[in-house]
Write a structure and sequence with these properties.
heterotrimer, A: alpha+beta, three-stranded antiparallel sheet, elongated, B: mainly alpha, two-stranded antiparallel ribbon
């Protein structure tokens, strides 16, 4: 497959990250020299002048060592009123059946990993989990035993909102836990079968 | 029909159609009833060769075996009368195999493309969380939701009833088929005697032997005397097996 | 401040969300009609044809609900190797024989019911379907004509992994569709005895 022009490669990385990237980092990611990245950024800037996203440059601050020129892709300032509105809407939307289901699993079974949640629900939960995080209902914590993986648990605010001081105060907590373990035991037995498929 | 059966024991098949298709393709045949009659023996021999044959899977395999037996019987005994349903089963099997074969061809595209040039969704956009529950966030709703989650966890269930019913009806079918073939042979004997095609009779007798193989080798059937009722041993009914 | 062209507004929202969006939702977000959004998407698609990002479409089908047309912005398949190096997520490429078979059926013949999948494969597919759903490669949608039954169709994740911006871009897709419709039409009539969901 033919390779994309450098400005398009830069665009792809910046779009994918959605966060400021240093020129140095971009150069390393793309296997290019910093000067090439800078030139590519100039071309990209001109190319997207008339579009819905724009480049934002953050020069390294004078006198700060280790500071690097950074750049990010962001939405055009001309749509900031729309984005503001959408951000607010995001927070008032109904969480729906999937939301309630996911959050109840995290409440009763948390801390729990995403793959476990996916497994229990039988579908991927990445979008709904992100939504629950933005709404401040669940939070992600690092797995002490494996720093590359995460667990989800209910936030403190959610528990006080529900009026429980600790998670064990949820209705029928012990009973649910036992029932879960019994049913899920069968599940894991089956999982080994499934994955060998 | 004199070809030796193919040794395909080492392969793992997804199901009866997978097995059947591979038998046909190994003999470089097109999918039609002649091809199906030719690979019927291979199919049965393969089933016979399996040491452990879990009943849940065997149901799927046996349904197809029964249709193959029909096709083979008909190819050997043109005067064997098939019911409308049986005719339909035969046409159906051919059609299914053709679709399956096409899907197999297409799966090569999927295999070649999957994970090769991925279009990546962007990293989750960072936003500062703002505590904003909706009105469904109550203890009561949490409990209701979690109970329904537990309830919908897949159960280790035994084989669906429809399949069990099919196994039973397959046994009946083989019994019936055996009787029908027996009587058909008696009829045919006169014809054969006239034209003197002894060879053909031998083929039919060996075919009947094959029927016995099916009965004994796969489902562990018990038959004390030749025309007694056949009892099926299905002790494993509650132990499903999934590949 | 002058308003951005609709295609640029769409791009901004898709960039900002970073998740699939339904046409309906986009229309509501931008205060436009769905047709305007669709036209805007076509323009956007043409505009970014030679860039670092691309659009992925997942259409609803007639008679299949759950079924809004949806669209997502992702990185170009031409920078796959670059993003793959950057991503921390583990990419599982192995589908297994059953998985490959089932995915092929859903990709080329979906939306399709479980009983039809079972019929074609000649075996029960409930476990592999659950497995594929947990992996996020296929999803279940409700049959609009019969709310107790479901159809399976490809997800964005599957399209992304296949590197196609729409399912019709798969090799032989149109040809196969005609084939199945013409030659094998009565196959569904035979479905009576196959186990139902």
């Amino acid at each position: 497959m033919e390779e994309l022009l450098i400005e398009n490669q830069i665009e792809a990385v910046l779009f994918w990250k959605g966060e400021p990237q240093s020129i140095k980092k971009l150069a390393a990611s793309l296997g290019k020299k910093e000067d090439e990245i800078k030139a590519g950024l100039e071309i990209l800037k001109a190319k997207i002048a008339d579009r819905g996203v724009e480049l934002v440059f953050k020069p390294a601050r004078q006198g700060h060592s280790g500071g690097d020129d950074e750049v990010m892709l962001g939405t055009s300032s001309k749509v900031s009123h729309i984005i503001e509105r959408l951000t607010k809407e995001e927070l008032v939307r109904d969480l729906g059946k999937a939301g309630l289901e996911t959050i109840s699993i995290i409440a009763y079974k948390g801390p729990i990993s995403r793959s476990e949640i996916d497994y229990i629900r039988g579908v991927q939960s990445n979008f709904i989990l992100r939504n629950l995080q933005i709404r401040g209902l669940v939070e992600k914590i690092t797995n002490e035993n494996d720093h590359r993986s995460f667990f989800y648990r209910p936030t403190f605010e959610l528990l006080s909102f529900l009026g429980v001081s600790k998670i064990e105060d949820l209705p029928e907590y012990e009973k649910v836990k036992i029932e879960f373990e019994q049913n899920l035991k069968n599940e894991t037995d089956q999982l080994t079968d499934i994955t060998s498929e | 029909m004199s070809d030796t059966t193919f040794q395909i024991k080492t392969e793992v098949f997804e199901g009866p159609l997978d097995l059947l298709l591979s038998l046909i393709e190994k003999r470089k045949l097109f999918i039609n009833d002649i091809a199906l009659a030719r690979v019927a023996d291979d199919y049965i021999v393969y089933l016979k060769s399996l040491e452990k044959f879990p009943i849940a899977d065997s149901a799927d395999f046996l349904v197809i075996a029964s249709t193959l037996l029909l096709i083979k019987s008909r190819s050997l005994l043109p005067n064997l009368n098939l019911t409308e349903d049986e005719q339909k089963d035969i046409g159906d099997l051919e059609r299914r195999l053709k679709i399956y074969q096409r899907i197999k061809e297409l799966s090569v595209h999927i295999k070649n493309h999957f994970g090769k040039d991925i279009i990546f969704a962007p990293e989750p956009r960072k936003m500062i969380p703002v505590f904003s529950p909706d009105q469904t966030m109550t203890k009561k709703n949490f409990l209701t939701a979690i109970l329904s989650v537990i309830k919908s966890l897949p159960k280790v269930e035994n084989i669906p009833k429809a399949i069990v019913r099919k196994v039973v009806s397959l046994e009946e079918m083989i019994t019936n088929l055996t009787r029908r073939i027996q009587s058909s042979i008696k009829l045919s004997f006169r014809e054969f005697a006239k034209v003197g095609k002894e060879e053909r009779v031998n083929v039919i007798i060996s075919f009947l032997a094959m029927l016995e193989l099916v009965k004994q080798g796969i489902v562990n059937v018990k038959q004390d005397n030749q025309f007694d009722d056949i009892e099926i041993e299905t002790q494993q009914t509650n132990v499903p097996h999934y590949n």
